[in-house]
What we know:
Its main location: membrane. It comes from Elaeis guineensis var. tenera (Oil palm). This is UDP-rhamnose/UDP-galactose transporter 2. It is found in: Membrane. It is a multi-pass membrane protein. There is one protein chain. It contains twelve helices and no strands. The protein is globular and about 95 Å long. The chain starts with a helix and ends in a 6-residue tail after the last helix. The longest helix is centred in the C-terminal third of the chain and has 53 residues, at about 280-330. It is mainly α. It has one domain. Helix 3 (about 75-95) runs antiparallel to helix 7 and helix 8 (about 185-210) crosses helix 9 (about 220-250).
Amino acid sequence: MEMEKKVVVSDMGAWAMNVVSSVGLIMANKQLMSAGGYGFSFATTLTGFHFTLTGIIGYLSNASGLSTSKRVPLWELLWFSVVANLSITGMNLSLMLNSVGFYQISKLSMIPMVCMMEWLLHSKNYSLRVIMSVIVVAFGVGVCTVTDVEINAKGFLCACVAVFCTSLQQITVGSFQKKYNIGSFDLLSQTAPVQAISLLLFGPFADYYLNRKSLLKYHFSTGATLFILLSCSLSVFCNISQYLCIGRFSATSFQVLGHMKTVCVLILGWILFDSVLAVKNVLGMLLAVVGMIVYSWAVEQEKQAKLASHVKSDRASDEEDASLLKEKVNSLPESDLKFGQTKS
């Protein structure tokens, strides 16, 4: 019982770390990248900075002996890096080419995409309660975030690439941890350097295509530099907690409960940046939160049902073994049964 409590506290800590660091990262990036802030409009390159600091911390941790890293084959790291970088670039291009409304819809479509991929790749089935709660969450987040919806061919293609690659990346994180029996931080410390190098090489070109601005011409003021360092620091906790959550739960759970960050961002945007928060937004957030609660309950019910099924199966197996042993003993001749008895 005490062990179960520790696991629950640890799970909640991982989720809290992800929500707090992600929301903090979004707020810091909003100040850093907005026209009213420091105007640093190089999102892909900034992600390269994020993974550079994450990789450095992972290297120092391994060098000091604080963590021992199990090796993942280089070709696995390379193809994972390609998928992850396509996810980042696709998201940035989708945001540039599509309306904000369609961009939000594409993000919501990751939930069914992850469910379908887990069903195809891992033969994972979902109960009706889980499916209904996922629909409620997606609908609630859609109500409070989706406004105008405009679609064009290039934007639609970029959104499809982004959704597919992001879903595949998140599923692969969990698969790698199980396949190589590797911890979340150890895996991150190996994937981060590969992503950092590739994003720092190609990121400035991608950003120039996105906004026609050169990183070399940007004026790195003291305030901008401090916010870049803050963004990088928060990203380390965000990346670690993401790998932790996917390893502990699943890519689907990470997507569903991850929309709590969307709710927090909307509330903080209203508090800190005077964003408009209409009745529709509030109702959508409440519906999304209800969906998340129902989803958590449904997943827990599935776990309890599977545990009860395993216990019942083990008990039936033990009873069958005892019955076979009894039949075997009864079938032995009486002389064999008396063998070894001491005479009085």
